[in-house]
């Protein structure tokens, strides 16, 4: 394909401050005037629509690209390129991200008191988390803008994803992670993909503080989720979800909340879909946090959303162990616009929900399981009705945190913690490995007793 033909889309984009509305240069992350976050807008959409294509034509085009042999079309992100910032196709770094399945979860539905329940499994992306959808856009932009180095602070999934995309794109990458507070599998990914990986003796919020200063002083492009190009890529999960529902929006979408970029991205996608006439109503977007890492919940309950209430975060769902989320204002806007809500869940509730998702033959990492735990509470409170349609966004793969899973099934997860007695209720979900003599009789005896 010629370069001219492959400039990816119709969408000329601009960066705009979410606070004061001023525009900003393409490789900035905060407004120079008020320090608020930036978002990408597409001024052309108002005047010209989408390059003369109707929403009906685009829906068909996006679907057709799934059977194309072009790697850019095969990406579940770039097949929606009409709604993404312009990147030359020779600059695109793709590992065929996106195109993730929606599964029905009948047993989880029953245990939550729902007639039906669906999960969009973003953990089935190439590096095992939803981060890949944003990383393909932001890393491609970094390469197009001429950066040689990219960097992020991370609870593990962003770093794994960034390291992979940097490697594929011939960029150097620097990872800052909290020492001892991320899962081994995630750490091993960034090592294997060749990132310079630094374990800092602080938490995620501390890593962010250090990195923000480093990128001010060095020609290194920041790939944390304050990066507005990441949000653009993460939008595509919602486009794809609507496509999988034949453009009939579900009543609710439930997402885990950490740094709050994913909820922001999904909400932005829905807003744009409505603006462009793809859908006529918005699903309610609700954000679930761990009780020990609940700054958004506290911000809403204690200040009515006026002022962020940072917390010292502590949860075994290490991916969302974040006390000072950067995208809190964007997430608040999404919750308000869609009439969604926030909820918080305990460590034991997270562990139970994770086991239930696993027992469906699907599985996810602990941070993703807050969605089911949160749904149960939202059904009890009456916010979600039994006959409504609900989609949980599962953000990470089961194998991202095998240590958690093994400890859970061996019954060790809460040993010596204040939740030890509360955790007794988890016993029915636990399946510890059984050690047997290597004899046929022993195995048959076991099978017979299992049948009873
Ligand atoms: N689920 C998983 C599996 C995550 O890794 C994260 C964030 C979230 C949910 C929360 O998403 O931050 O957009 O609200 N992980 C980041 C990281 C912070 O560094 O990997 P969010």
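Q: What amino acid sequence fits the structure above?
A:
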């Amino acid at each position: 394909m010629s370069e001219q033909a492959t400039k990816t889309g119709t969408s000329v984009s601009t960066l705009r401050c979410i606070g004061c509305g001023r525009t900003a240069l393409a490789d900035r992350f905060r407004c120079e005037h008020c320090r608020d976050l930036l978002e990408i807008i597409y001024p052309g959409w108002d005047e010209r629509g989408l390059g003369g294509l109707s929403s009906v034509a685009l829906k068909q085009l996006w679907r057709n690209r799934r059977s194309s042999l072009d790697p850019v079309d095969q990406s579940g992100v770039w097949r929606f390129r009409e709604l993404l910032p312009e990147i030359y196709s020779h600059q695109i770094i793709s590992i065929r991200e996106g195109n993730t399945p929606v599964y029905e979860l009948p047993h989880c539905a029953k245990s939550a008191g729902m007639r039906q329940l669906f999960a969009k499994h973003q953990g089935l992306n190439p590096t095992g988390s939803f981060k890949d959808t944003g990383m393909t856009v932001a890393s491609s932009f970094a390469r197009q803008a001429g950066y040689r180095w990219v960097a992020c602070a991370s609870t593990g999934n962003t770093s794994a994803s960034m390291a992979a995309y940097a490697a594929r794109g011939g960029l150097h990458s620097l990872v800052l992670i909290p020492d001892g507070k991320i899962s081994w599998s995630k750490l091993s990914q960034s090592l294997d993909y060749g990132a310079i990986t630094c374990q800092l003796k602080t938490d995620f919020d501390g890593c962010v503080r250090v990195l923000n200063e480093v990128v001010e002083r060095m020609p290194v492009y920041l790939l944390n989720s304050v990066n507005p190009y990441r949000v653009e890529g993460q939008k595509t999960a919602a486009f794809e979800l609507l496509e999988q529902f034949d453009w009939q929006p579900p009543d609710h979408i439930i997402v885990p909340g950490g740094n709050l970029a994913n909820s922001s991205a999904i909400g932005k996608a829905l807003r744009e879909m409505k603006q462009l006439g793809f859908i006529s109503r918005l699903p309610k977007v609700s954000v679930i946090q761990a009780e020990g890492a609940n700054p958004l919940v506290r911000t809403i309950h204690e200040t009515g959303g006026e002022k962020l209430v940072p917390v010292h975060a502590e949860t075994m769902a290490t991916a969302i162990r974040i006390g000072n989320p950067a995208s809190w204002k964007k997430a608040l806007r999404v919750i308000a616009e869609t009439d969604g809500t926030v909820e918080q869940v305990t460590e034991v509730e997270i562990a139970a929900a994770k086991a239930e998702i696993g027992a469906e033959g699907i599985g996810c990492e602990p941070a993703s399981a807050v969605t089911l735990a949160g749904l149960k509470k939202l059904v009890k409170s009456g916010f979600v009705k039994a006959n409504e349609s609900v989609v949980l966004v599962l953000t990470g793969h089961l194998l991202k945190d095998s240590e958690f899973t093994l400890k859970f099934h061996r019954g060790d997860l809460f040993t010596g913690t204040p939740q030890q007695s509360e955790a007794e209720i988890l016993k029915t979900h636990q399946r510890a490995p059984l050690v047997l003599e290597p004899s046929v009789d022993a195995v048959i005896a076991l099978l017979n007793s299992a049948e009873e």
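Q: And what stands out in the fold?
A: The longest helix spans residues 228-244.
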